[in-house]
Write a structure and sequence with these properties.
Number of helices: 6
Strand content: 15-25%
CATH class: Alpha Beta
Number of domains: 1
Helix content: 25-40%
Oligomer: single chain
CATH superfamily: P-loop containing nucleotide triphosphate hydrolases
Number of strands: 7
GO molecular function, one term: GTP binding
Structural class: alpha/beta
Bound molecules: guanosine-5'-triphosphate, magnesium ion
CATH topology: Rossmann fold
Protein name: Probable GTP-binding protein EngB
Strand order of the largest sheet: 1-3-4-2-5-6-7
Shape: globular
Radius of gyration: 16 Å
GO cellular component, one term: cytosol
CATH architecture: 3-Layer(aba) Sandwich
Family: Belongs to the TRAFAC class TrmE-Era-EngA-EngB-Septin-like GTPase superfamily. EngB GTPase family.
Cofactor: Mg(2+)
């Protein structure tokens, strides 16, 4: 897909605020600080469209980004951030679950994991939960610019020890928002998921 245009549309905290034009949506989920907002900026070729931060917990709402007039990316609040209060975490949790389980426009989920580390318990839980949503899942191992070439080769089998990447709806993709390696494969997966 060629991106001619992208724009931020809304930070939503409830379903009444979600866009109503019925375009397909792709959600991006993953731990706080894993690089969701950076990936959105990288693939849309925008420096600062999605707010990124070295401080985890930056994105706290469902943020909708319109890509051309083809689809929305939905930046989901990161999980696993200890400093968010219990009540707030529960509130996010309900909003996210509600969105993921009931949104008819949702056509795929990009689940980001940090290529440098084994998936966390939160990652494993999120992945197993996502398998039940009956939508295509793209597991993106990001920040691979920080890995040696030899480690990149072993990444899929390493992550496959905790996440069952052999499931038919699951695709695995090593990525870096710095180098944008595999960006063409990323867009291929998006195109296939929304058609
Ligand atoms: P929350 O909104 O808090 O959930 O975080 P996020 O998942 O949106 O992470 P964000 O994109 O803000 O990135 C967090 C940090 O990781 C920033 O300092 C980014 O510069 C860095 N980062 C993200 N992607 C990459 C990558 O591919 N390579 C490297 N080296 N750094 C990255
Ligand atoms: Mg973010």
């Amino acid at each position: 897909m060629k991106v001619n245009n992208s724009k931020f549309v809304i930070s939503a905290v409830s379903d009444k605020q979600y866009p109503q034009d019925d375009l397909p949506e792709i959600a991006l989920s993953g731990r706080s600080n894993v690089g969701k907002s950076s990936l959105i900026n990288a693939v849309l070729n925008r420096r600062n469209l999605a707010r990124t931060s070295q401080q985890p917990g930056k994105t706290q709402t469902l943020n909708f980004y319109l890509v051309n007039t083809d689809l929305y990316f939905v930046d989901v609040p990161g999980y696993g951030y200890a400093k968010v209060s219990k009540e707030q975490r529960q509130k996010f949790g309900e909003m996210i679950q509600d969105y993921l389980e009931t949104r008819a426009d949702l056509k795929g989920l990009v689940l980001l994991v940090d290529a440098r580390h084994d998936p966390t318990v939160d990652d494993i839980n999120m992945f197993n939960y996502a398998l039940c949503l009956n939508i295509p899942i793209l597991v993106v191992a990001t920040k691979i610019d920080k890995l040696k070439k030899s480690a990149i080769g072993q990444l899929e089998s390493k992550i496959g020890l905790s996440l069952d990447l052999t499931q038919s709806q699951v695709t695995f993709l090593p990525f870096s928002s710095e180098t944008k390696i595999n960006i063409d494969k990323f867009w291929k997966w998006i195109e296939n998921s929304i058609k």
